[in-house]
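Exercise 3.2. Students should predict the tertiary structure of the chain below and write it as structure tokens, then compare their answer with the key that follows.

Predict this chain's 3D structure.
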Amino acid sequence: MQKSPDMNLKPASSSQSSTRVQSVQTPSGIEVWLVEDYTVPLLSVEFAFLGGAAQDPLGKAGLGNLMAGLLDEGAGGLTSQEFQEALEEKAIELSFDAGRDRLDGSLRTLSENIGRAFELLGLALAAPRFDVDAIDRVRAQIISGLKRDESDPSARARDALSALAYPGHAYGRSAEGTIADLATISRDDIVAHHARLFARDNLRIVAVGAIAPDALTNAVEAAFGGLPQAPSLVPVPAVTMVGLGKREIIDLDIPQSTLYLALPGIARRDSDHMSASVLNHILGGGSFTSRLWTEVREKRGLAYSVWSMLSSRAQSAMFLAGTATSNERVAESLEVLLAEINKIAQEGASADELDKARRYLMGSYALRFDTSRKIAGQLLEIRIEELGIDYIDRRNAEVAAVTLEAMQAASARLFSSVSPLVVVAGRPQGL
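Answer key:
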């Protein structure tokens, strides 16, 4: 293994370095991270309630997803149509989305409409109507999407991989839900789920834009302060994926197959995560410069795209890689993916690869902060992962500190077994 070059690499100065993040608190104890920015008269707010699809009861997969789709379908005295008209009248953007470990919300408004925006948000959070006609309509929309997914190789492979990696665990069930389970969900189920999940203690919220701290705390308190203090969440146990060495083929009569492979990963808060991230960029995360791109796309023309990534959930972590290729070339593509993983595990990366990866990851970081919405999104992730309010200022220094030796240590953890769980959706030949 090569030794890291003595380059005295320094973090590049960029706009995100000057982002000043304040922590403010409402009277009921809600902590809000704020970046004041009066460049344009806009405010972007991102928030999350910890919980997500992992809280869906057994036999009710998709409950959180269905509830999220109903939060802007009428609240308080406003019907679905009236609520949407109220948003549109003031050009307010409000949306909700249920993920594995949290339910996300997003609010974007002109400064002059902040009061009305938070009023409508507060109604959606505290007094959603959950009207039966809206439930039936949103349920039908979700089921329609699930039926489309039945012929989508990416969706089929993704769901199968989760089920095989996490049997008997909440992570093994579909976050979107299943057609059978969604059909059984009642209004009472939705109301009870809302009561369990929406509370101040499991709220994480950030704001970026043209608002002073006092005005923000007043607005947040008005919208969120009336929620119960503590949620009633079911503990989700930590879990390591299983199924290593297993190969699953999902038969779809299509000319091209989608291939996913998975290994246990490294969690976001783990001290080796940054080294693993740089390693992954070299292997398959850097779309046009990675080893996988070079070997799969450029040299062999096996696929238009190929990738790898680190996926971190609240209670588990995965290394994932994948591609889509013609059925007759799936076996060769898998062989190349495994060979490149084995090669980087055995030989490590070169000093030149490390230098280029660090420079790219440091230089491109500023692109994550070029709009208020992007800044808010980044801050929310930092809050949820508990990386610290100063993480934006520290991040590039952490990238610069990654060495070849540190990457090799991360590689030893990720690729101690190059016998991944493999899932292919299509009709691959030779597997």
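Discussion points: Confidence is low (pLDDT under 50) at residues 1-15. The chain has 15 helices and eleven strands.
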